[in-house]
Amino acid sequence: MLALGLAGAWLADRSGRTSRLLPDLALVALGQVIVSTISVAADISYWNMLLMGVVLSLAVVVPFVISRFVFGDRVIRFPWRTGHRWSPVQWSYLVLIAVLGWLILPFYFITSGVYTNWPTVTLPDEIARLFVGVNAVGIWDELFFVCTVFALLRRHFPVWQANLLQSIVFVSFLWELGYQSWGPLLTIPFALLQGYTFTLTKSLSFVITVHLLFDLVVFLVIVYAHTGVPPIFLLAPP
After folding, report:
1. Is residue 232 included in any domain, yes or no?
2. How far apart are CA 101 and CA 137, in angstroms?
3. CA 143 to chain centre
4. 159 lies in a domain?
5. What distances in angstroms separate CA 231 from CA 30, 95, 205, 220, 226, one per listed residue?
6. Is 233 contained in some domain?
7. 87 three-class SS
8. pTM (two decimals)
9. Are 194 and 142 in contact (CB under 8 A)?
10. What region holds the CAAX prenyl protease 2/Lysostaphin resistance protein A-like domain (predicted)?
11. Using CA atoms, how far apart are residues 52 and 56, in angstroms rounded to an integer?
12. Which end of the chain is less enclosed by CB atoms within 10 A, N or C?
């Protein structure tokens, strides 16, 4: 599928209908190929976390380096600071995300049984590794899918099309990670909202904060579904 997509981009560039679509899609494909070299299933063993950390980092770093130093582009950027304080609307949005996550995520994880895609954690060391893993992947999601894939696609497509395309890649990764069953009904809107939020705020720090807040609830729900702790959710654990 990647090869066919790149072939289509080459034909579009050659016909003059697009300009430099192939190099940009090649960077997206390169990141995907790097990720595909490992399993992204939830495995919090020390070795797998190290391996996954290295591979996912390369999936962001390699396209960035090629874009910046080989192609001479600055399209892939990581705008952590915008020079503007978050507005009351942004702070309210964070509260809304936390409340929606608290209400929806327990129902999704427990009724679908997908919490079993993550290991049972009872020891402090295991809980800490799960916490680090969930949040590290959440940060990577925004660096790759929004700051890399979405940014590259926006050069060639209207924002809504580029956002839809990046959400497909985003949700495909989340499916492999464990958000299965009817999970895409949640992850597709989330991916679209993250792309749209980044377009409005141009703030990587804000979209990462949104994601980490959501992932904090994910972490708590996974532990709760396995152990019944912490008892802060409305739905009883299985």
Report:
1. no
2. 18
3. 8
4. yes
5. 43, 20, 30, 10, 12
6. no
7. coil
8. 0.94
9. yes
10. 127-217
11. 6
12. N
Residue 92 inside a domain? The answer is yes
Per-residue pLDDT tens digits for 131-162: 999 999 999 999 999 999 999 999 999 999 99
* Region label for 18, one of left (φ > 0), alpha (ψ between -120 and 50) or beta (otherwise): beta
Residue-range definition of the domain harbouring residue 191: 2-227
Total count of domains within the chain: 1
Of 199, 213, 131, 114, the C-alpha closest to 163 is 199
Measured distance CA(224)–CA(157) in Å, rounded: 42
Give the span between the Cα atoms of 124 and 182, in whole angstroms. 31
Q: What are phi and psi of 185, to 5 degrees?
A: -65, -20
Q: Which amino acid is at 83?
A: G
- Give the number of residues written for the chain: 238
Residue with tokens 């600071």: 81
CA quadruple 31, 32, 37, 43: dihedral sign: positive
Give pLDDT tens digits for 93-146: 999 999 999 999 999 999 999 999 999 998 999 999 999 999 999 999 999 999
- d(Cα 222, Cα 121) in Å, to the nearest integer? 9
Q: What is the rounded CA–CA span in Å between residue 61 and residue 23?
A: 16
